[in-house]
Amino acid sequence: MKQLPPLNALRVFEAAARHLSFTKAAEELHVTPGAVSQQIKALEDFLQTPVFRRHKRALLLTDEAQASLPILREGFDKLVEAGEILAKKADAGRLTVSVAPSFASKWLVPRLDRFQEAHPDIDVWVSADMNVVDFAVDDVDIAIRYGPGQYPGLVMEHLMAEKIVPVCSPQLLTGENPIKTPADLIHHTLLHDSGNDKDPSCPTWPMWLKAAGVDHKAGDRGLKFNQSSLVIEAAVAGKGVALAKSALALADLEAARLVIPFDLTTPTEFSYYIVHPPSKSSSPAVKAFKAWVAKEAAESVDAADAQEAAA
């Protein structure tokens, strides 16, 4: 085997070449500029040729160094991939799934027992967070994302579409001000989902009421929540009427804890997607989870359609 250049020096060189700055490379690597300079000198001593040249106070790569960069970066990617392969045996029985908190609590977690029954050798770790996971940094195998379907560099599969439906407790269909038409909503508290989904097609109450032909002067008033699951729980408790994501409200609709008072649904432009790095494509746990969750999603869509048809 040929003698390898010092790997730490190569790592420092890649950062310095990307930034064309020893100072910025030092900030990224959490070392001093002097330490970066020493590593570059060690690499140049090993290669017996310079890799940088200075021109009018600017730091430039030599032609040979510039030509080597794509190969070097590919080499680092291969090293990462090799490390993942070596670690596969230790993590073969573990699958970490990243998902938004409301989707986890209202849709994924209630179904996980079926996955565990089918795959008792796989331990599922659910990481519930509104922040989008960075697969290059975070220890996550696969994610379910709600968004526009633009995830460059990742393997992506459409899971299911979403739509917004009005929901409330069955108790609100009777009583002093029973809900029979959208106009009856002026007598009830509106529950607002202020979550950070960044979905421009998801209607607010003022938008929905206007589309339904209701002149509601206080359409933006009511109770506001930063999680979709909390909006649904408030509706179950009879605190008011909510605009809910159909998939998240499905279990409560099937259990008759919620009802759809009128058939006025709004499809969203965003959908749910399964995403993971290409390096995870061969993972048996990832393959098993993808097949299982796709089946669950198809059944969920059919069940939601049935609930809306019965409304």
TrEMBL record:
GO terms for biological process: DNA-templated transcription. PROSITE patterns: HTH_LYSR. GO terms for molecular function: DNA-binding transcription factor activity; sequence-specific DNA binding. Transmembrane segments: none annotated. SUPFAM superfamilies: Periplasmic binding protein-like II, Winged helix' DNA-binding domain. It holds the Pfam family HTH_1. Residues 5-62 form the HTH lysR-type domain. Coiled coil: none annotated. Keywords: DNA-binding, Transcription, Transcription regulation. Belongs to the LysR transcriptional regulatory family. This is LysR family transcriptional regulator. It comes from Hyphococcus luteus.
